[in-house]
Amino acid sequence: MSIRIRTASTPTSTTTAKATNITAVLKRRGAKRRLRLGVMGGTFDPIHHGHLVAASEVAAKFGLDEVVFVPTGQPWQKTHKRVSEPEHRYLMTVIATASNPRFTVSRVDVDRPGPTYTIDTLRDLRTQRPDADLFFITGADAMAQILSWKNIDELWSLAHFVGVTRPGHVLDGMGRKDVSLLEVPAMAISSTDCRTRVAAGNPVWYLVPDGVVQYIAKYGLYAGHSEPDSSAALIELPEPASTE
C-alpha cells in the first residue's frame, strides 16, 4: 500500500523557495555567469553522511551554487529488493539537507509515474532550471557502467558528470572532457549497511544525520529488514542499456 506523508514543516514549496533564494542572491551580487547546479540522485534509503560529504566536496571543487538531491521514485534496478516508500525517502532527504543553505531537494522523480531513469531526471531539471548548467554527481560503480546507460549520448549533452569515490578506489574517466573524477574523504558508509544495522538493533548515530536517526525510529523503518551482504558504492545509480 502506498504511503503519502505530508508535514507542515516540509512542503514541496519549501525546497522550491530555497532554490529561488539562491538564484536571487546571485542576481543581487550581479553574477553574470550561469547558475552551476549539482544533481545528486539516489535511492537514499536512508540518506547518510557519505552522500552529504560527497555533495559538499563536489560543490566546493566545482564552484556549484546549489546541489539538488533527487530521491528516486521507483528505482528500476531494485524491483527485486525491498525499498522504503518514496515519501519516507524524500522526507529523510529533506531532513538531512535542511541545515545547508546550498542544498535543496526535488520531487521530480518521486512524483513521476513509472521507473526512475537518470535521463528523465536530467530532462525534467533542465526544463525546470533552464538558467543552470547541470553537474550530475554519481558513484564509482555507476560511472563504470555509464556507457550502458539509457540514452547515453543525450546524457552527455545534458550534464557534466562527476564521478566520486573513496580514496583507494580506481575511477575511469573514459577519456572524456565532460567527465570529472574526485576522491572524497574516506567514509566507508553505505545505505545497505545502515539498514542492516537498524534491523539488527545496532545504532546508526553519526552514520546518518541525527534527524534521520529519529525519523527511522519514529516510523519503524528497516525493522526485520534482511538482505545479502553488499559492498555498495557510495552512491548506487546504475542504469540499463537503452530500450529505445
Q: What can you see in these coordinates?
A:
Helix 5 (118-128) packs parallel to helix 7 (152-158). This protein has a 6-stranded parallel beta sheet, with helices on both faces. It contains 9 helices and 6 strands; from the N terminus they run H-E-H-E-H-E-H-H-E-H-H-E-E-H-H. The radius of gyration is 17 Å and the shape is globular. The relative contact order is 0.18. Helix 2 (49-62) links the parallel strand 1 (35-42) and strand 2 (66-71). 36% of the residues lie in helices and 15% in strands. The chain has 244 residues and is of the alpha/beta class. The protein starts with 11 loop residues before the first helix and ends in a 25-residue tail after the last helix.
Quaternary organisation: single chain
**Secondary-structure-derived class:** alpha/beta
Strand order of the largest sheet: 3-2-1-4-5-6
Average predicted confidence as pLDDT: 81
Largest sheet: 6 strands, parallel
Low-confidence residue ranges: 5-13, 229-244
- Number of E-state strands: 6
State the share of residues found in helices, binned by percent. 25-40%
Our estimate of the beta-strand percent is 15-25%
Order of helices and strands: HEHEHEHHEHHEEHH
Radius of gyration: 17 Å
How far apart, in Å, are the first and last alpha carbons? 31 Å
Number of helices: 9
Q: Which geometry do the CA atoms define?
A: globular
